[in-house]
Amino acid sequence: MSVDPAILWLVGKDALWAGMAALGFAILFNVPVRALAACFVNGALGHALRSLLMHYGLGIEAATLAGAALIGFLGIASARLWKAPAPVFTIPGAITLVPGTFAFRTMLGLLQFAAATSSDAGGEILWNISFNATKTALILAAIAVGIATPTLLFDRRKPVV
Predict the structure, then answer these.
(1) How many CB atoms lie within 10 A of CB 87?
(2) Is 159 helix (H, G, I), strand (E, B) or coil?
(3) CA-to-CA distance for 71 and 65, rounded, in angstroms?
């Protein structure tokens, strides 16, 4: 499987803008200045992996799971390196994976359904609402599982007893 340079360019641009978004959210959440670079890298690499996997045919849900898992692993590594809690690094990076388009379409569909006057249009609108809401829920679940899995695997606390 060869990688087209045009695809690398698109994924690189995607990574740059996702990293900038992660950096912006990290600044918004008052992340220490020494940790901002790691937040940028986590967001950029996680989103780039998702975009690359989607380009090669993987569904958005599975690609988001892989991207979130990468963010989770990088977050644990960053937490150990900079001696800070892992959520400092994972939350800003994971925000770039949030399915805003599907959630927006769900809300828009709900408004259209509320305003619909004929029952013929209602069935199609309900189907669109169901589709977009399901996609949104699956992507959000993939983000949660992807970020939590590395923590559950590698950052387990020893029992007190």
Answers:
(1) 15
(2) coil
(3) 10
Residue 143 to residue 132: CA distance in whole angstroms: 17
Q: How far apart are the first and last CA of the chain?
A: 51
**Tokens representing residue 109 in the block:** 């569909």
What is the Cα–Cα distance from 104 to 109, expressed in whole angstroms? 8
User: Cα dihedral sign for 26, 51, 154, 78?
Assistant: negative
The residue with tokens 């770039």 is 96
* pTM of the shown model: 0.90
Q: Are 157 and 127 in contact (CB under 8 A)?
A: no
d(CA 35, CA 84) in angstroms, rounded, equals 9
43 and 75 Cβ atoms separated by less than 8 Å:
no
pLDDT digits (tens, 9 = 90+) for 33-58: 999 999 999 999 999 999 999 999 99
Is 90 exceeded by the pLDDT of residue 64?
Answer: yes
**Complete DSSP assignment for 61-107:** HHHHHHHHHHHHHHHHHHHHHHTS-THHHHHHHHHTT--HHHHHHHH
